[in-house]
UniProtKB/TrEMBL annotation:
PROSITE patterns: ABC_TRANSPORTER_1 (PS00211), ABC_TRANSPORTER_2 (PS50893)
A molecular-function term among this protein's GO annotations: ATP binding
UniProt keyword list: ATP-binding, Nucleotide-binding, Transport
Protein name: ABC transporter
Amino acid sequence: MIKIDQITKSFGQLEVLKGISTEIGKGEVVAIIGPSGSGKSTLLRCINLLEVPTSGQIIINGQAITDPKANVMQIRQQIGMVFQHFHLFPHMTVLNNLTYAPIKVKGMSKDKAEQKAKELLARVGLSDKADAYPSRLSGGQKQRVAIARSLVMEPQIMLFDEPTSALDPEMVKEVLDVMKGLADSGMTMAIVTHEMRFAEEVADRILFLDGGRLVEDAAPADFFQRPQSERAKQFLEKVR
Ligand code: ADP
Ligand code: MG
């Protein structure tokens, strides 16, 4: 579904992605892990064109999204993204946070958007918060709203950039549980995370980045039990 072919990304003189190639199949869940500054966020942001790769190609469903003529708006609509900080609209209720884009961008009727939004709030366990404002929610609740808000656009791919890193420990599980449910439902997902147990349990594959290179691309059992590279061994010793 997603083919990443020799992408590089430089910011001025700094080359942060140094030729990354991999593929993500439909329904596959890939965890991207690695040290801080290794290029994880940049790689994720290239997949939905928040960053434009300096060279190389990304092909989604046969369409080269890195082609200068590609329709960026249309590509982004197929890809949901959830960030560490939730970026909810503070002046809108939870329900309106969810219905805003489908109404404005997709031209969905208000009734239909609200019906869909309510289904998704139920799915993330927040039916009772439809009329609340974000400031009244806990971090875990905000992140679950952010996930529901992405899903309301019916993306084919969901990208997560450290979705639980800003949360108090007791709220991490409720967000990971929602993500696990989404994975079980067959969503194609790429997740930057430091939650190693979650990655081991939920991901189909681990991408380990170091210094802008894809150092390991392996099944979780292989990566966690038999890391091939010295870099991955050192990293795992530190985080486990
Ligand atoms: P990670 O998510 O693995 O911590 P990032 O992809 O955020 O790593 O960053 C990789 C490197 O690229 C870092 O050295 C970071 O400072 C640099 N970088 C990221 N975004 C920019 C930017 N917009 N301008 C300049 N440098 C950037
Ligand atoms: Mg990052």
